[in-house]
């Protein structure tokens, strides 16, 4: 039999091919086809086709912690509150649990701390000595209805303040009115302003109306040089969902097939249980591969997820179901 | 490195087994040996054979091989079960079905595990798909049991039903068979596949626990020999079979002429069509669900991949990279996609067929399998560059093997899709609703899935066209398969019948105005090929005319014309109605002539009444032409599922002697109004009213070849007609002595046969439900699943 022996071999590339962006291509946008029912079916089936249990589940949850952008984005944020968050980011799990699991060497910490511009310096100070990057939301977060001039300025100021990663919001109106070129130009300018910092583009998927728009917006952002595409601000009424995850993962895959560039994925908002979080990770693994289960290509934007993960891990260690008050809050 | 650290680095799945404790305990409770379930009790285990776990080839339990005595016993208790069941009200029967549904749900985990260890299907599939659907079938049919009296007036249960099911969906197939049968008031004898008896026996235990009256459901285990005993039992009035086309044909043969009602759900080679404007990633997931679901051991598996040329390499690449993600292993592992095939025999069969495909020149791609698997595993396989002329494109493999080819235009996609003996299902992928809805009716299949695949629901009938079998399971149409119209709605009292025996032939020919009728083929009056004629005699035994003595070639020409000229079928239902009204109008002008013609034969009791009935029937069925609507089913998914009533195709109609005008007009009007094209063999002894109608057809704008009439000796014509592979159905209203021959002759393409002794029918005055029956027989249901959402 003339078997193609090679097609089953997967290469585990350790190095990420960072996105440099490509020229605007309307054709790729016009070719987008999404069948919502089939997407939903795949989401339901993919997460039922796989499971992780026991020690393997713990491993996956630990990975989730390392991919977590621990977030506080509220009007009532204060410096002291941000400091508390940063301290939690450095020690996301109780020491006794780490010891009992025998994983002290893994040096588990979160993927990033995500704050408003105002708190960048506070966070930097609080995170000193760790390698945790500070992530700043930008460009008139969350609605994005501020003058373009100030948006660019905001990015530059955040970089100057020391933010290593910038989460920008796109202008949803460009998507909804089909001004793809405008969207491309906008994100390109953000990319330029953010320099070498990691640029995450928030699509605000819950406000784009259709899955088709989500995929188109995702492709435009990647063409314009986004390092990550992110679902939501957490402020929309619909935030991260599995169908968004599927559509955006497939967009990343397609972009990689066409350009060779590897773009990360960040679901954010509404992921609060360990079980949900595993579903997202499994879907990403199925569609993009294990390489994407790494903080350089996967982040979870979350504020309360960590507490549930801690409880699940304690349950694994003790065999008893845990309680929220047994783990330090952020 | 700790286990956790290792897993943290790998980020992979590890074996996560569902517990088989409860399932094994249940088997142990029976000492690992099972008898049959007959008359509400388990018999003593006897003549035992092993049932094997195809994953580790170990014995799971021992099951009894049903003997002829077991079958006879079960028939006996099924008879008393039937009577007990009949003595209950609809409401009482409905409550039992409801209880069964509840129990399947309550015991779902144990049942799922049993299903997976015996069949090899993944626990995900048995847990998430098979068992919930089985419960759904009983809920749905608990509803029909309740509504039986009001929704099926003038129908009665057929009696004892013999049901033979395959190993690929053991409990689901049981549910598809048992639920409608007992909802309709029948009793059943179920013979599960010898490879997978356990869930049927578990089901039997549920029947006992809910105190279902003894004998209503009986389970006799064993292999095909046990099944053949069941098929041959005289007291079994209905056989429902799901399995291979080959065995289906054998069953058809051995029940030929027995009058047993038959549903056959057979094989398939279903097309999976991807157009260039499809959501390609979703379509590729569809392929996974189409051909790697249940290891491809699915009658409606999408095994022929038809790709639009412009996107074919792109899709093939996507399939190959998707294949790498498939996981294999213990069926009880919650993280696998595929388990082993059912048996060594099946494994060898798949290997053999794939090898033959390679000889034909196809390119093969297969997944690497984990090295330590002991069971009957076969890797997911993609065969590229397959041509329709290769065996692998035409033959059902019943394994995880996908054959792919390309098309250039939608029209070519339809041609390729229909290039098959089978006609079970099809899957169409396109984001263009115009295209998808245009293609769906053009496919010769019973089920169409648009942008989806392998979706099932109890409310939506399932079943195929062509050699994929006949009858539907599920939906209202599925209920009719277990019911029979009450004969008092259409039959006449015995003394009113006029038999052919009253007529003796005489060679004496009387000088008269010469009356030579021709045949009517392809819209033209045609002389018969043989050059012989037959005399027609009046009630005084005087020859009053001659008609052509048709032969094989006349039948061939008529069928050829009916297949070639599709105009009648293509007309709108409104246009068909118009033409049929017009036929009535033109017929009414010749009232006196037809009445005097009818007066000359003993086959007509009351010429005026018969003529007026014929006119009325034309009006009736012209009226029905645009009113026998399909349905939109309410399946519990976000989709419109449209049940279209489609014509059967080319129907051969064999007319009785009795009421030679009314019977002829009734039959052709019913069949025509749904868009069928007909080859009619009129009354053997008095064909004149039928052949005299062709002048009326000619003046009524009837498109050519909608109706073709071949006169002659029935014995000579019926065989050719019934054997013809381009005829889709036969309505045999002629002499019942031909029934068996017609059944056997029909086997090669499994055309749909409806035999009723037309000399027993009260053509002048039957109950209106007989009209409905005619309409149902004139059509077949195609269900089109149309999911929506943006």
Q: What is the CATH architecture term of chain A? A: Alpha-Beta Barrel
Low-confidence stretches of chain A: 1-13
- What class do helices, strands and sheet pairing of chain B give? alpha/beta
What is the oligomer described by this structure?
heterodimer
Largest interface by residue count?
Answer: A-B, 44 and 50 residues
Distance between the termini of chain A: 60 Å
Poorly predicted segments of chain B: 495-511
What helical percentage do the residues of chain B reach?
Answer: 40-55%
What is the CATH topology assignment of chain A?
TIM Barrel
Keywords:
heterodimer; A: 330 residues; alpha/beta; eight-stranded parallel beta sheet; disordered N terminus; B: Aldehyde Dehydrogenase, Chain A, domain 1; Aldehyde Dehydrogenase, Chain A, domain 2; 3 domains; ten-stranded mixed beta sheet; six-stranded mixed beta sheet; 28 helices; globular
Summarize the structure.
The complex is a heterodimer of chains A (330) and B (790). Chain A is of the alpha/beta class and 330 residues long.
Describe the protein's topology.
The complex is a heterodimer of chains A (330) and B (790).
Chain A: H1 26-30, H2 36-49, H3 54-66, E1 68-71, H4 79-90, H5 95-101, E2 112-115, H6 120-127, E3 134-138, H7 148-161, E4 165-169, H8 172-176, H9 180-194, E5 198-202, H10 211-223, E6 228-230, H11 242-259, E7 264-266, H12 274-288, E8 300-302, H13 305-318
Parallel strand pairs in A: 1-2, 1-8, 2-3, 3-4, 4-5, 5-6, 6-7
Helix pairs in contact in A: 2-11, 3-12, 3-13, 4-6, 7-9, 9-10, 10-11, 11-12
Chain B: H1 3-10, H2 21-29, E1 33-34, E2 37-38, E3 41-42, E4 48-53, E5 58-64, H3 68-86, H4 90-106, H5 108-119, H6 123-151, E6 155-157, E7 160-164, H7 170-183, E8 187-191, H8 198-209, E9 217-219, H9 224-232, E10 236-242, H10 245-254, E11 261-265, E12 270-274, H11 280-291, E13 302-308, H12 312-323, H13 344-359, E14 363-366, E15 381-384, H14 391-394, E16 401-407, H15 410-418, E17 425-429, H16 433-439, E18 447-450, E19 469-470, H17 475-480, E20 483-485, E21 516-517, E22 519-521, E23 524-526, E24 533-537, E25 543-548, H18 552-564, H19 567-570, H20 573-589, H21 591-599, H22 607-625, E26 631-633, E27 639-647, E28 650-654, H23 662-673, E29 677-681, H24 688-692, H25 694-699, E30 707-709, H26 714-723, E31 729-732, H27 739-745, E32 752-755, H28 768-777, E33 779-787
Parallel strand pairs in B: 1-5, 7-8, 7-10, 8-9, 10-11, 12-13, 12-17, 13-16, 15-16, 17-18, 18-33, 21-25, 28-29, 28-31, 29-30, 31-32
Antiparallel strand pairs in B: 2-3, 4-5, 6-20, 11-19, 14-15, 22-23, 24-25, 26-27, 27-33
């Amino acid at each position: 039999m003339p078997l193609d022996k090679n097609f089953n071999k997967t290469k585990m590339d350790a190095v990420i091919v960072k996105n440099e962006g490509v020229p605007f291509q309307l054709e790729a946008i016009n070719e987008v086809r999404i069948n919502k029912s089939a997407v939903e079916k795949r989401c339901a089936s993919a997460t039922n086709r796989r499971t992780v249990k026991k020690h393997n589940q713990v491993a996956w949850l630990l990975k989730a912690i390392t991919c977590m952008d621990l977030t506080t984005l509220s009007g009532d944020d204060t410096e002291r509150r941000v400091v508390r968050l940063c301290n939690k980011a450095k020690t996301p799990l109780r020491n006794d649990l780490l010891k009992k699991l025998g994983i002290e060497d893994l040096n588990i910490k979160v993927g990033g701390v995500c704050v408003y511009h105002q708190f960048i310096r506070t966070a930097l100070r609080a995170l000193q000595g760790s390698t945790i990057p500070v992530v700043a939301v930008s460009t008139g977060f969350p609605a994005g209805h501020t003058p373009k001039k100030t948006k660019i300025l905001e990015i530059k100021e955040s970089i100057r303040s020391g933010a290593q990663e910038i989460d920008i919001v796109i202008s949803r109106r460009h998507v909804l009115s089909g001004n793809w070129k405008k969207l491309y130009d906008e994100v390109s300018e953000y990319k330029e302003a953010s320099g070498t910092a990691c640029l995450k583009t928030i699509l605000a998927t819950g406000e784009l109306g259709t899955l088709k728009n989500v995929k188109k917006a995702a492709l435009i952002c990647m063409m314009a040089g986004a390092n990550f595409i992110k679902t939501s601000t957490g402020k929309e009424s619909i935030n991260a969902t599995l169908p968004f995850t599927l559509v955006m993962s497939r967009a990343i895959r397609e972009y990689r097939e066409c350009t060779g560039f590897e773009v990360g994925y960040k679901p954010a908002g509404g992921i609060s249980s360990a079980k949900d979080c595993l579903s997202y990770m499994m879907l990403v693994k199925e569609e993009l591969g294990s390489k994407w289960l790494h903080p350089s290509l996967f982040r979870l934007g979350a504020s309360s997820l960590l507490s549930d993960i801690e409880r699940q891990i304690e349950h694994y260690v003790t065999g008893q179901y845990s309680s929220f008050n047994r783990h330090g809050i952020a | 490195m700790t286990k956790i650290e290792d897993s943290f680095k790998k980020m992979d799945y590890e074996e996560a087994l569902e517990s088989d404790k409860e399932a094994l305990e249940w088997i142990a409770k029976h000492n690992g040996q099972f008898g049959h379930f007959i008359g509400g009790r388990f018999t003593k285990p006897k003549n035992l054979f092993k049932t094997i776990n195809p994953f580790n080839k170990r014995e799971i339990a021992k099951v009894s091989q049903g003997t002829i005595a077991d079958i006879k016993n079960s028939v006996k208790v099924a008879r008393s079960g039937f009577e007990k069941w009949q003595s209950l009200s609809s409401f009482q029967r409905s409550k039992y079905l409801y209880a069964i549904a509840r129990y399947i749900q309550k015991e779902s985990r144990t049942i799922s595990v049993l299903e997976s260890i015996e069949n090899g299907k993944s626990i995900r599939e048995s847990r998430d798909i098979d068992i919930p659907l089985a419960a759904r079938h009983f809920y749905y049919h608990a509803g029909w049991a309740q509504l039986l009296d009001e929704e099926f007036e003038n129908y009665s249960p057929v009696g004892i039903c013999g049901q033979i099911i395959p190993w690929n969906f053991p409990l689901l197939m049981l549910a598809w068979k048992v639920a409608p049968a007992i909802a309709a008031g029948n009793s059943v004898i179920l013979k599960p596949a010898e490879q997978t008896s356990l869930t049927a026996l578990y089901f039997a235990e549920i029947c006992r626990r809910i105190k279902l009256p003894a004998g209503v459901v009986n389970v006799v285990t064993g292999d095909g020999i046990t099944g053949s005993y069941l098929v041959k039992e005289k007291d079994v009035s209905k056989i429902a079979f799901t399995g291979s086309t080959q065995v289906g044909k054998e069953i058809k043969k051995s029940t030929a002429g027995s009058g047993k009602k038959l549903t056959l759900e057979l094989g398939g080679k279903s097309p999976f069509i991807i157009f260039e404007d499809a959501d390609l990633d979703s379509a590729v997931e569809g392929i996974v669900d189409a051909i790697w679901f249940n290891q491809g051991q699915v009658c409606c598996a999408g095994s022929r991949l038809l790709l639009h040329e412009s996107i074919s390499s792109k899709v093939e690449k996507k399939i190959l990279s998707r294949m790498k993600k498939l996981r294999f292993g213990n069926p009880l592992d919650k993280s696998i996609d595929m388990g082993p095939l059912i048996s060594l025999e099946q494994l060898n069969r798949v290997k053999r067929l794939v090898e033959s495909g390679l000889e034909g020149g196809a390119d093969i791609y297969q997944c690497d399998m984990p090295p330590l698997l002991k069971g009957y595993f076969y890797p997911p396989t993609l065969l590229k560059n397959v041509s329709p002329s290769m065996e692998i494109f035409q033959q059902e493999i019943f394994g995880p093997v996908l054959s792919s080819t390309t098309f250039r235009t939608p029209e070519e996609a339809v041609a390729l899709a229909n290039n098959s003996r089978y006609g079970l299902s099809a899957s169409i992928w396109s984001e263009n609703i115009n295209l998808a809805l245009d293609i769906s009716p053009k496919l010769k299949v019973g089920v169409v899935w648009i942008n989806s695949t392998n979706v099932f629901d109890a409310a939506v009938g399932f079943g195929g066209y062509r050699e994929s079998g006949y009858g539907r399971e599920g939906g209202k149409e599925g209920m009719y398969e277990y019911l029979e119209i009450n004969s008092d709605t259409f039959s006449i009292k015995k003394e009113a019948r006029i038999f052919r025996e009253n007529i003796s032939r005489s060679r004496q020919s009387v000088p008269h105005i010469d009356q030579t009728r021709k045949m009517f083929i392809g819209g033209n009056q045609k002389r018969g090929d043989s050059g012989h004629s037959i005399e027609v005699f009046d009630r005084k035994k005087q020859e009053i005319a001659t008609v052509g003595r048709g032969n094989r070639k006349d039948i061939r020409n008529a069928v050829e014309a009916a297949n070639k000229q599709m105009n009648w079928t293509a007309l709108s239902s409104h246009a068909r109605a118009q033409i049929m009204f017009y036929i009535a109008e033109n017929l009414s002008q010749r009232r006196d002539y037809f009445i005097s013609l009818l007066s000359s034969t003993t086959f007509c009791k009351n010429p005026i009444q018969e003529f007026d009935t014929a006119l009325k029937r034309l009006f009736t069925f012209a009226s029905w032409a645009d009113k026998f609507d399909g349905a939109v089913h309410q399946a519990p998914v976000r989709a419109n599922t449209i049940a279209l009533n489609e014509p059967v195709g080319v129907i051969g109609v064999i007319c009785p002697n009795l009421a030679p005008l009314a019977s002829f007009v009734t039959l052709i009007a019913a069949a025509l109004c749904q868009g069928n094209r007909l080859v009619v063999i009129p009354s053997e002894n008095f064909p004149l009213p039928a052949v005299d109608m062709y002048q009326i057809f000619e003046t009524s704008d009837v498109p050519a070849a909608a109706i073709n009439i071949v006169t002659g000796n029935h014995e000579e014509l019926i065989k050719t007609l019934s054997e013809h592979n381009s005829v889709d159905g036969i309505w045999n209203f002629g002499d019942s002595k031909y029934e068996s021959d017609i059944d056997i002759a029909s086997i090669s393409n499994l055309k749909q046969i409806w035999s009723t002794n037309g000399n027993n029918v009260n053509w002048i005055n039957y109950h209106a439900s007989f009209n409905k029956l005619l309409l149902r027989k004139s059509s077949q249901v195609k269900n089109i699943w149309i999911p929506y959402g943006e």
